[in-house]
Amino acid sequence: MSQDIRLDVSYAEKFVTEPEAEGMKPVVLAAQKTLLEKTGPGAEFTGWVNLPETYDREEFSRIKKAAEKIRDESRILVVTGVGGSYLGARAAIEFLSKGRGESGLRVLYAGSSLNPDQMNDLLDELEGTDFSVNIISKSGTTTEPAIAFRILKALLEERYGKKGAAGRIYATTDQKKGTLKELADAEGYETFVVPDDIGGRYSVLSAVGLLPIAAAGGDIDALMQGAGRMAEICQSDDPEKNPALLYALYRCALEKKGMEVEVLSNYDAGLHQICEWWKQLFGESLGKEHQGLFPAGMDLTTDLHSMGQYIQDGRRNLIETVLDVKNAGRDIRVPEVPGNADGLQYLNGRSLNEINHKAMEGSIIAHAEGGVPVMRIELDRRDEDSLGQLFCFFEYACGVCGYANGVNPFDQPGVEFYKRNMFRLLGKPGYENK
Amino acid sequence: MSQDIRLDVSYAEKFVTEPEAEGMKPVVLAAQKTLLEKTGPGAEFTGWVNLPETYDREEFSRIKKAAEKIRDESRILVVTGVGGSYLGARAAIEFLSKGRGESGLRVLYAGSSLNPDQMNDLLDELEGTDFSVNIISKSGTTTEPAIAFRILKALLEERYGKKGAAGRIYATTDQKKGTLKELADAEGYETFVVPDDIGGRYSVLSAVGLLPIAAAGGDIDALMQGAGRMAEICQSDDPEKNPALLYALYRCALEKKGMEVEVLSNYDAGLHQICEWWKQLFGESLGKEHQGLFPAGMDLTTDLHSMGQYIQDGRRNLIETVLDVKNAGRDIRVPEVPGNADGLQYLNGRSLNEINHKAMEGSIIAHAEGGVPVMRIELDRRDEDSLGQLFCFFEYACGVCGYANGVNPFDQPGVEFYKRNMFRLLGKPGYENK
User: Fold this and answer.
1) Are B328 and B267 within 8 A, CB to CB?
2) At A12, phi and psi to the nearest 5?
3) Is residue A384 within 8 Å of residue A218, measured between CB atoms?
4) Residues 367-406 of A with CB under 8 A from B
5) Which is it for strands A76-80 and A131-136: parallel, antiparallel or unpaired?
6) Residues with Cβ < 8 Å from A140, sequence gap 6 or more?
């Protein structure tokens, strides 16, 4: 079990006056109450709030069995979904350094774009290698995953026959209705449930995320335990004891003061996809009615050498949140060499994890001095327990921010506009004249 | 030879009134003059302006020979650099779909972070595989690549002996001085030049970018030809004939009206790294003195399912620029199946490239209707000629925007702050008390 997540706001405090923080406190407390009591707009989509406690144990154990079967039968699992149907799983799998074959199974992704090159590259990878498919779609009609699934299904049936293919397809979809559910029942796929009361971007701890994570070798018991502990912490109305509430408080106070962009920084490539997941969570939940901080991710120290100048001295309308994982997976030391020909003598024999953390400290101080409020989320290590906490932390904080901003954090009305245009341009029946 | 790049501003026009465009025109024309006549701040770093014409032919042919030698001797080339020292090369290599082994050589990257996991992953890849290293650093003292190079050099020397290692190391560095130049001369590495009059983010068409691109199998003659043609086009003072000038004009007019974020969208995973390169170019050139649009990249349609809601209906302070590559590399068709069980009958047999482009059209219209000015950069295909044009297009446009904004687009004073803190925290001699 890892230590609990902490939030360090010491480099944000000078940007929020005491009266501002005090003034925002009742706003976020009321928002938290609305969330926990399920009395706000979109309350019918807050099933994730209780998920670590109420999750379906029977399905949970079926997930573990299916994960084992996938690993037994295949060298590759193709997770086929878009947006909230894969971002959480992918974030988890990369955070845990899984899915690259360590457990005997590689995880690849399909159905998140319409790019033919990506699909052809995937088909190249699948040549001569046994694979299974987890198609994840509430309705089954979202264009990207539906096309990818049609292609993958045809390939599976060609290779393993209709019955063999059906045994390698796992459908995570609506419990009762919809195109994919009907197809799964007709063809005999094993199915898992996208709950009705949980939107895509909050669904990582349902079967949507759990099956791919378990297949990749992740310990989903530990994941749920970490989430459960953080869910309890998130009940507290004391920001000193509840880091999600503290994060929401500062975030809202800073937005109210005119901030427009939030950058989520990591110093560890394994967290890149956490930033992608977070961008959907916060962008889609809060970016509406012409409001919301624009969410952006940064991979550091890499991006200090591209975006660092902007962060340090560009427009002063941004806040930075840093994901600080204390312990790297596999450390490595700077080789000791005699002399100082490369100017690195002072680093002889020192650990990269240490040097990376000094760069983080140095950047936090520099950015705060340059006028950027910085918050730091501290995690012990990249394990399932910390990850469960992190997912839960962000989801609660996001729900609170939404209600504090006066928006419904659980809808996404803007996502439909381009689809209507696309369907019309493609001549989809029913859309010709829209 | 591909068609010349076009810029479509029809979905941005309604956001800029005629008087606003007319008012901005003399500003960008004056900025263009300052750039071309090299009379502005930072003019000593505008060597890239003439590069497609004046480049060193002797070095160019040495680059081609070295590229061949690398492919003969190695299965992997490790490009070791950070920021402008690798972003252009990587953007080019991925744009051209090279570097994954097609030419017999894979290109991997090191020295762009301090993350120990990434370094360990790289060392795993190098086990048992012949490799060469291109270390790219003007000074040789930048921490990330210097550490990576120390590790890689030790590995090469262990495996091939001191002399064998020296034959596999290619140093792109200062022509005359500096830590890396001295080391290269002492050890006998072949060296290439980071020109004095070209900053990192404008250096992709110098040896900095050309050696890795050529090694990966890219046609650098065609690249320079495309760049040369665009450089000529960029001399024109007529925005109707000069797309870089038109882009600068709209960008500046929209920024003046209060826009704060620019999103560069692609619909092709092969352009992801172009967005990363562009973020440095524009972020570092224009993000200073508390000014500049915040640059962000989007991979579509993927990110329509995460950032789409924000783009459609979040804060109305953003502009979108779309990279539209007309022809995909390898197309693929939706398999034809009987019936309509998956709701995709209307797409039976249609090309993914076509569907992807309809999604693009649909999104551009939707975003513009939602209040986002959209510009579209149209490229024929992902080849060297188009790429040379694109690099040149953005570099000229960026230089013009900088002078139009009244900043020096060729310095990056903000990048040093975190380094000073980091050196102090690491106890680097000379930084103890800073």
Assistant:
1) no
2) -115, -20
3) yes
4) 367, 369-371
5) parallel
6) A146, A173, A178, A179, A180, A181, A182, A183, B342, B343
- Closest Cα in chain A, distance from residue B421 (Å): 4
How many residues does this entry show for chain B? 434
A305 is catalytic: yes
**Is the preceding omega at residue B301 within 30 degrees of 0, hence cis?**
yes
Between positions 38 and 77 of A, the ones with CB within 8 A of B are none
Query: Which entry of A176, A305, A432, A434 is annotated as an active-site residue?
Result: A305
Cβ of A341 and B182 within 8 Å?
Answer: yes
Average pLDDT of each block of 10 consecutive residues along chain A (434 residues)? 92 96 98 98 97 96 98 98 98 95 92 96 97 97 97 98 98 97 97 98 98 98 98 98 98 97 97 98 98 98 97 98 92 94 95 97 97 97 97 98 98 94 95 78
The tally of CA atoms less than 13 A away on the side-chain side of residue A257 is: 22
C-beta of residue A236 within 8 angstroms of C-beta of residue A92 = no
* Contact yes or no for B222/B83 (Cβ under 8 A): no
Residue of A310, A312, A365, A434 best to disrupt the B interface, most CBs of B under 10 A: A310
Q: What tokens appear for B111 in the block?
A: 């020295």
Q: What is the DSSP letter of B198?
A: B
Helix (H, G, I), strand (E, B) or coil at B107: strand
Task: Examine the pLDDT at B307 and tell me if it is beyond 70.
Answer: yes
Residues A329, B419: C-beta atoms closer than 8 Å:
no
Minimum-distance CB partner of A309 among B149, B287, B301:
B287
Q: Is B1 on the interface with A (CB under 8 A)?
A: no
Nearest chain A residue to B315 by CA distance is A290
What's at B162, amino acid-wise? Answer: K
pLDDT of residue B434: 64
pLDDT above 80 (res B205): yes
Q: What is the CA radius of gyration of chain B?
A: 23
CA B286 from chain centre, in angstroms, equals 16
Integer Cα distance of A76 and A132 in angstroms: 6
CA distance, residue B238 to nearest chain A CA (Å): 30
Residue type, B26: P
**What is the nearest CA distance from A43 to chain B, expressed in angstroms?**
19
Which of the residues A94, A190, A284, A395 is marked catalytic? A284
DSSP assignments along A363-423, one per residue: HHHHHHHTT--EEEEEEEESSHHHHHHHHHHHHHHHHHHHHHHTS-TT--GGGHHHHHHHH
A429 touches chain B (CB under 8 A): yes
Starting at the edge strand found earlier in the chain, the sheet holding A106-110 runs A106-110, A76-80, A131-136, A169-173, A190-193
CA dist A63 and B375 (Å) reads 46
Q: Are residues A328 and B154, on separate chains, in Cβ contact within 8 Å? A: no
Are A139 and A179 contacting, i.e. CB atoms less than 8 angstroms apart?
Answer: yes
Q: What interface predicted TM-score (ipTM) does this complex get?
A: 0.97
Nearest chain B residue (CA) to A359: B422
Please report the number of interchain residue pairs, chain A to chain B, with beta-carbon separation below 8 angstroms. 392
Q: Hey, which residues does A263 pair with through a beta bridge? A: A296, A320
Please give the pLDDT value at position B1.
75
Judged against a pLDDT cut of 90, whether residue B329 lies above it is answered with: no
Rounded distance, CA B376 to CA B395, Å?
Answer: 17
Touching check for B151 and chain A: CB below 8 Å?
yes
Nearest C-alpha neighbor of B82 from the set A360, A356, A304: A304
Cβ atoms of B421 and A362 within 8 Å: the answer is yes
Q: Does B270 touch chain A (CB under 8 A)?
A: yes
Tens of pLDDT, residues B141-178: 999 999 999 999 999 999 999 999 999 999 999 999 99
